[in-house]
Amino acid sequence: MKQVIVKTERLGAVLSIRLANPATRNSLTDELRDQLGNAVAQASADREVRAVLLSAEGPTFCSGGDLSMLKDACDPWPVLRRFRGLNQWLLPLLTLEKPVVVAIHGAAVGGGMAIALAGDVMIAGESAKLMAGFFRLGVVPDLGMMHLLPRLIGMAQAKNFLFSGGTFTAQQAQQLGLVSRVVPDDRLYDEGLAEAKRLADGPAEVMGLAKSLMSRTFETGMQEMFAFEGFGQALAMSNPEFREGLSAMLEKRPADFAGAALRAQEVGK
């Protein structure tokens, strides 16, 4: 029987995804990557899932690459095949058109840090540490780290962090804007779930659209972004979430975005 090392649980409109292989410090084994990809596909396909919470079991969030696998699969073709596989699990997480909250405790090392950065909102437990790790092993930063980190904290700070094999504590990561807030470890999951539920209660489909557009901003000129925004707004204003938000503002009542989306789904069936 296949061991479950990535657990999923529906919590209302939130899909909780938990890395659950503490014996390997949640390292990125083939099995974990496959199961994480399946979990993200589940979140993408289920329209009733409006936000995702990514967390981990055990003392370590994710220790990065599976060293035993790297020892046996470091020839060019195995490495190339492994990176082609990013389209099956990492890219879908990065581009998921739903808000993703990451709740991180303990160490997130190398590729594990890249996984943490793949979300939209990161909440850190007091024990959290974001660690470079790549050059200690003698490999280049991967899993999107060289794309994401300079955009998030600037090129100079990214180079200094990566080349020095640096570590950001939870508090340092918050000061840099990588982490939205720091909470005690024993409150981390509940705080992460509360944030994911808050996002799920908002106009999550429109947030997903905005997320898709924002991912293009660093490679796109201003006029092109104006065009993207115009197309995006045309779509957003045709969405039942917009009609609910506008009605709620005019009627001076709380908006029920999730209910509006659900009713639209029922009509469309």
Structural features, described:
By secondary structure, the protein is of the alpha/beta class. The protein folds into 2 domains: 6-201, 2-enoyl-CoA Hydratase, Chain A, domain 1; 204-268, Lyase 2-enoyl-coa Hydratase, Chain  A, domain 2 (Orthogonal Bundle). Helix content is 52%, strand content 15%. It has helices spanning 30-45, 67-72, 76-84, 86-95, 111-117, 134-137, 145-153, 155-163, 170-175, 188-201, 204-214, 222-236, 240-251, 257-268, and strands at 6-11, 14-19, 51-56, 100-104, 107-109, 121-125, 129-131, 167-169, 181-183. The strands form 2 sheets. It has a 6-stranded mixed beta sheet, sandwiched between helices. Strands 5-7-8 form a 3-stranded mixed beta sheet. Strand 1 (6-11) and strand 2 form a beta hairpin. Helix 1 packs across helix 4 (86-95), helix 11 packs antiparallel against helix 12 (222-236) and helix 13 (240-251) packs across helix 14. The model has no long low-confidence stretch (mean pLDDT 94).
Structural class: alpha/beta
Our estimate of the beta-strand percent is 5-15%
Radius of gyration: 19 Å
| CATH fold title of the largest domain | 2-enoyl-CoA Hydratase, Chain A, domain 1
**Mind telling me which CATH architecture of the largest domain this is?**
Alpha-Beta Complex
Can you tell me the CATH class of the largest domain?
Answer: Alpha Beta
Tell me the helix content.
Answer: 40-55%
Provide the succession of SSEs.
EEHEHHHEEHEEHHHEHEHHHHH
- Terminal-residue CA separation: 36 Å
Q: Detail the poorly predicted runs.
A: none
